[in-house]
Each structure stands twice: as C-alpha cells, then as structure tokens.
Amino acid sequence: MSNSNHWSKEETADFSYTFLAWYEREKRTLPWRENKDPYRIWVSEIMLQQTRVDTVIPYFLNFMTLFPTIKALAEAPEDTLLKAWEGLGYYSRVRNLQKSAIQIMEDFDGKMPQTAAEISTLKGIGPYTTGAIASMAYGLPTPAVDGNVMRVVSRLFEITDDIAKPKSRKIFEETMQDIISRDNPGDFNQAMMDLGSSTCTPKNPSCNLCPVNEFCQSYEKGTVGNYPVKSKKVKAKPVYYVGMIIKNEKGEFLLEKRPTEGLLANMWTFPLFPEEMMTHEVEVPAGGLHEIASEQTQQIVLKQLQEAMTQKYQLHPTFMKRPLPEIKHIFTHLKWFIACYYGQVDQVKLTDLPENCEFVHPENFEKYTFPGPQQKMLAQYQKNIGQKK
DNA sequence: AAGTCGGGGCT
DNA sequence: AGCCCAGACTT
User: Fold this and answer.
1) Residue A370 falls within a domain, yes or no?
2) In the Cβ-directed half-sphere of A385, how many Cα atoms lie within 13 Å?
3) Among A2, A52, A259, A269, which is 20 to 30 Å from A168 by CA?
4) Mean pLDDT, chain A, as a whole number?
5) Distance in angstroms between the alpha carbons of the first and the last residue of chain A
6) How far is the CA of A48 from the C1' of B5 (A)?
7) Per the database record, which ranges form the HhH-GPD domain (predicted)?
8) Is the pLDDT of residue A86 over 60?
C-alpha cells in the first residue's frame, strides 16, 4: 500500500499555482467549456466516458441542437435519441441520460441538483461524473478520478496500487482530496485531464515539457515508466454468427430490432443466428463456413439456413451457395465473426413476420439505428452483390 | 470483485 | 494485435 500525499501546505499551494497557471495558458477550447451550464457539462461528461474528445465534439454539438434543455431531453422520442448516439457506443449511457432528465423534471423541479450527494443519485452518474459536475459547474472541491487522474497521480506520488482494481479508486480519491485546489477545483480537475491527454500520456510521456515535473516523484527517480501499475484484461472471446441478408422483390431488406436489454439493445440488425445452429450436422473447418470445400457439405448448411428462416420468419429464401467474406467486429469483451449469406424471397406476407421485424428499403435506412456489425454487413453486401446490377 | 457494455485511435 | 480512453451498472 502506497502512502499517498507527501506534500506540505506550501508545496500543495505551490503545485496548484503552477498547475492552474499552466492550464489557463494551455487549455483547449472545447464547446462544453464555453460556460458553466451544468446541463452542457453533464451531457459532455457522459459522452466523454471511455470516448475521445475529438470523437465527442460533433456528437455534442448535434445533441445540443436537438435537445437544448433538460426538458427537451426528457421529452425526446427514444428513436431520435438513439439515432443521435449512433456510432458513439455504450448506448445505455443515452438511455440513462434521459431517465435522469425525467428524474430531474419530477424530483428537482427541472433544475440540475447542486450537491454531490444529490447529483450522484442520477442514473448513469457515478463517482467520477459526480465529481466532475460538482467541481466544474458548482465549484465544489470534489475529486473526479478517471483513468487520466489515476495515471497522473500514480506518477506524481509513485502509487503502486493496481488501477484496474475497483478498490484502488479510493486511494486516488483521497490523494486528490488532499491536493485539489479549494479556490478552483473545476479547473484543477480539468487540468488533470488536459495534462493526462497531452503530456502525461500512457506511453512516451513528455516529461521534459511537463509543467509540474519538479513535483513528480517518479520523474525525480526516473521510474515514470513503472506507473501506473495495471493488471491485464482478459481478451475478447470469439463468437460465431451466420448473418442473413434477405431481399424481397421490392428491393427491401429484412431487419430485426434487438431486445430492449443487453448488447446493442433496441438497435437494428440483419438477422443473426448462432453458427452452431447451422452446423450441428456437419464438420466445420477451423476457418469457419468459408472454408468448406465439399459441395455436399455446403448443401447441408444451406438446408439448415432455410429451415432456420422458415422456423423463425416463415420465409423461404433462395440463398447464394457461399457466404460473403467473413466479417470481424471487436467489442471490449467479445469478438464477433459473421458469415453472411445473401438470399432472395419472391413473396412476402408481412403479417407472418415476428413483431420486431420489418422489410425496409435502403432509402429508409437512415431512420434506423445501426450498430457497427450491421454497418459492416451492409458494406459487405454492397461491395459484393449490390453493385452488380 | 468480476462481468457487461462500443468504438476508434495509436503503437 | 494489444492497449488506451473524461466509467457505470449488474450480479
């Protein structure tokens, strides 16, 4: 266990002075730094969770145009909301954002709560975001400990606690509690972010340019490279799917809305089946369905595809013999491999489709929210099939 | 404490 | 290919 703070009152004041002067000089101009509107700060902090500044900026501007107030957010249709988040990832963030907006309308008279305890009751706002909003919007001396802060602080004080462990966050919060500026905690927290992204980077930090290197214990000892201590993550587990790209006579494609909970909740995809469902009668090569050489084995697989389509959708497509080139999509904890088959149906009775399914013309795809794998499947179709006509 | 939940940039 | 990112929630 590391001892956190070794600074005297004078050193602490010295650090704040130097650090805040650097921030005032070098801070980035960002849309959510224009003022201290708690709503803007809140939305930006949610978007910035596990997401880079450059990625967030256009989403933030669009979001503020669409939903300029907490009230507008609370009243927004769910489809519009999800569409505004399309491509940003971690989609539960935007659902929680709206839940909290409704909660603020009902319990806080439409005004953002102004104490850390109340702020942290909102859905999607954990310890980090509570500290960020409380300090930046209301000037409260609340630590906002994220990955940047743990990296910077671990180097400043040579803290060896594993930052991958939930328990360690407390150590860093206590250290920040000791050193955070009482006069300007909001800028102090933001200065930590800016320093972490520009100078005190994970790899090859620019210590010679660091405004506070004279305060840094690991810099003094030449041990910066040892910090932060972080245990390794388990690597993504492979999952194999068969994707069905089904077109009807009107040029419409079969889409399915995913369940309301879990991975990619409420988003639209081409139908997916677990690969095992298609291959329990055959031996699949290590490389997947793409490497099946035998004509006979292919026929068996195709028969399975058709049975699956009949059972689930009451459709009888004519499939291409071989799948499109394999699609790979990596999530944090899963690695999807998708063998896409293209099939056509000549007659459609929409009443027979399951409730969460629709045939949709590509002209109208813009109205549907598509996650990454879906985008790749569509691209693969357009590249190999769509252009031939 | 461990697992779930996305996507993109960098090395 | 692995690592990282302005994390929070569920179990």
Assistant:
1) yes
2) 20
3) A52
4) 93
5) 67
6) 15
7) 47-198
8) yes
Question: Residue A238 phi/psi, 5° resolution?
Answer: -75, 140
Per annotation, catalytic residue among A45, A158, A173, A252: A45
Can you spell out the DSSP letters for A309-337? HHHHH---PEEPSSPPSPEEEE-SSEEEE
Residues A358 and A377 in one domain: yes
Residues A287 and A356 in one domain: yes
The boundaries of the domain holding residue A141 are 9-226
A56: CATH: 1.10.340.30
Question: Domain check: are A214 and A307 in the same one?
Answer: no
Give the CA angle between residues A309, A311, A312 to the nearest 5°: 70
As for how many domains chain A has, the answer is 2
Could you read off the pLDDT of A191-236 as tens digits, one per residue? 999 999 999 999 999 999 999 999 999 999 999 999 999 998 888 9
Closest residue (CA) to C1' of nucleotide C1 is A235
Q: Is the peptide bond before A354 cis (omega within 30 degrees of 0)?
A: no
**Domain membership flag for residue A1:** no
My answer on whether A317 and A221 are in the same domain is no
Same domain assignment for residues A186 and A293 = no
Q: How far is the CA of A18 from the C1' of B4 (A)?
A: 41
Q: What is the pLDDT of residues A43-85, one digit of tens each?
A: 999 999 999 999 999 999 999 999 999 999 999 999 999 999 9
Closest CA to A158 of A175, A140, A137, A178: A175
